[in-house]
Recover the amino acids of this structure.
């Protein structure tokens, strides 16, 4: 589904990433883990087009998307959520999801200002679909609430609903469990599995090891901007290099 | 949705009935400019209040509309309605072309760049004496007419300007409550998240910038035919700031707030006549008070004040209606 080929990223003299290569298999849940400062979020930003890579290529279903801006990648089905939740705070919960349906609709400046009939029916369709998505993540009762007033946990669910609105092929989640309590995290694990069952490939950066070990089919371990290991959760747990990176030398 | 319709109809009715008891006096004349300024404020509000992109050059687009129509009809004898359309198209193309480089900038840099555009255009009005008459202005611009109806009185011009203004207000209301409007507000809240959601932020910013320029240009055309005389002073940096002040006072991100701000800032200088040279002080104090105590503008401030004065339950019932 997603292939990273020798990704490198430098900020001035600082090398944030070097020689990162791995594949995210279609229909799988892939976890990207590593100590703080390992370059996980930078890798996400490169994959989604927030930063261009300094070297290497990002391939989505075999197609090189390294040069595409974020909105172009979104149209191809590569969608992400953010570590610190990037909601449209002054808009309602429902409107947030409706923005997510932007690529599923087409009315432009003129159709919108003159309320063309097709624009009105498209608007109804968007609204209904957005409600379905709020149902899917379990917050339909919050539809008319201003998004900026949501708790962190609910905000996370909204962000996932909004991302799902784009009908992603691949959903990248940056620390989805950050700031959630244990029952919210358990619900999140179920939600991520349900997303996978819809046929969406999932890749996530995460610190919560219980969550990662529970839901991931495949793990990639980063340390200091390089790849340390790759394998199933079982293999990673027994990997000496990983244990050293996390716990230090004896 | 339905209540929005009713609100607009009530507003339109008020606008259409207001001049009747005034019988074409001085106040009618002032209210013509309220109409023009409302659209200028609305154009900037779509750009700044909704999409979050500042422009300090709005007076330039207004001026290009006025001079475009003025020169084409006076010097070249073109039909005023044709001239208005031609000028609107040209200003739109101009705004679209400069929009791409200019709107790559953000914040203060964007303010500086649009300010620069405004200043350059204003210098052009002053310096191209043969075309525009330079600092002494352009006079003898014809009134607009439809068949045998000539818009030569304040009352007629009031209806002319306000029919245009109401049309643009209605289109703007439709726009902000649509896919396009949601995209603009999303860009305002978090441009990066909007782009990740597939919103083409660059194009939409240029589109709304162009829209605001075209709205201003059409009002400029009307202005020159209403006034029959124009000079560069009316289209300078000060006026751009005044338009900005209107939407700050009225309410950023509110269509009706733009109208309210335009109404106040157009009437205010008239009311402050008694203060003579000290009016600028009163004006400044009002601005400071507004930005400190009512950053959401009057459209947010008045309901908030009502909530304090009236028991909470009553107001909630009222706002549901």
């Amino acid at each position: 589904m997603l292939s990273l080929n020798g990704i490198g990223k430098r900020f001035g003299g600082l090398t944030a990433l070097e020689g990162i290569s791995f594949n995210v298999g279609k229909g799988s849940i892939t976890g990207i883990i590593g100590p703080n400062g390992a370059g996980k979020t930078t890798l996400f930003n490169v994959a989604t087009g927030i930063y261009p890579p300094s070297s290497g290529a990002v391939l989505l279903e075999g197609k090189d998307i390294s040069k595409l801006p974020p909105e172009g990648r979104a149209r191809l089905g590569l969608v992400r959520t953010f570590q610190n939740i990037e909601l449209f705070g002054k808009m309602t919960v429902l409107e947030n999801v409706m923005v997510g349906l932007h690529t599923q609709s087409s009315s432009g400046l003129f159709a919108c200002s003159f309320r063309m009939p097709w624009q009105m029916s498209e608007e109804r369709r968007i609204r209904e679909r957005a409600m379905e998505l709020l149902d899917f993540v379990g917050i339909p009762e919050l539809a008319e609430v201003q998004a900026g007033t949501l708790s962190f946990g609910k905000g996370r669910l909204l962000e996932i609903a909004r991302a799902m609105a784009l009908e992603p092929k691949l959903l990248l989640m940056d620390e989805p469990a950050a700031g959630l309590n244990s029952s919210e995290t358990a619900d999140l694990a179920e939600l991520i599995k349900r997303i996978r069952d819809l046929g969406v490939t999932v890749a996530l950066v995460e610190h919560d090891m219980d969550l990662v070990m529970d839901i991931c089919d495949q793990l990639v371990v980063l340390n200091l901007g390089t790849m340390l290991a790759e394998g199933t959760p079982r293999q990673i747990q027994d990997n000496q290099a990983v244990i050293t990176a996390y716990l230090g030398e004896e | 949705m339905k209540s929005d319709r009713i609100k607009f109809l009530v507003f339109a009715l008020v606008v259409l009935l207001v001049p009747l008891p005034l019988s074409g006096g001085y106040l009618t004349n002032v209210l013509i400019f309220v109409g023009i300024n409302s659209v200028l404020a609305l154009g900037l509000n779509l750009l700044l209040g909704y999409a979050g992109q500042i422009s300090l050059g709005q007076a330039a687009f207004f001026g290009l509309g006025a001079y475009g129509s003025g020169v084409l009809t006076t010097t070249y004898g073109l039909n005023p309605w044709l001239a208005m359309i031609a000028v609107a198209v040209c200003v739109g193309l101009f705004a679209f072309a400069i929009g791409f480089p200019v709107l790559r900038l953000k914040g203060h840099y964007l303010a500086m760049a649009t300010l620069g555009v405004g200043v350059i255009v204003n210098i052009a009005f002053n310096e191209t004496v043969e075309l525009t008459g330079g600092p002494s202005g352009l006079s003898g611009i014809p009134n607009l007419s439809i068949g045998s109806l000539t818009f030569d009185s304040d009352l007629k011009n009031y209806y002319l300007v306000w029919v245009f203004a109401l049309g643009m207000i209605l289109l703007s209301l439709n726009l902000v409550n649509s896919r396009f409007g949601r995209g603009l507000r999303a860009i305002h809240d978090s441009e990066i998240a909007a782009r990740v959601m597939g919103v083409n932020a660059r194009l939409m910013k240029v589109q709304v910038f162009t829209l605001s320029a075209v709205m201003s240009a059409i009002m400029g055309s009307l202005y020159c035919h209403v006034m029959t005389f124009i000079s560069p002073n009316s289209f300078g940096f000060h006026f751009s700031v005044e338009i900005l002040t209107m939407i700050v006072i009225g309410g950023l991100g509110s269509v009706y707030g733009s109208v309210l701000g335009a109404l106040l800032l157009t009437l205010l200088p008239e009311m402050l006549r008694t203060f003579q040279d000290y009016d600028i002080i009163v004006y400044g104090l009002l601005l400071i008070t507004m930005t400190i105590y009512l950053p959401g503008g009057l459209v947010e401030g008045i309901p908030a004040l009502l909530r304090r004065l009236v028991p909470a339950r009553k107001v909630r019932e009222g706002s549901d209606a």
Q: What stands out?
A: The beta strands of chain B are 138-139, 145-146, 149-150, 229-230.
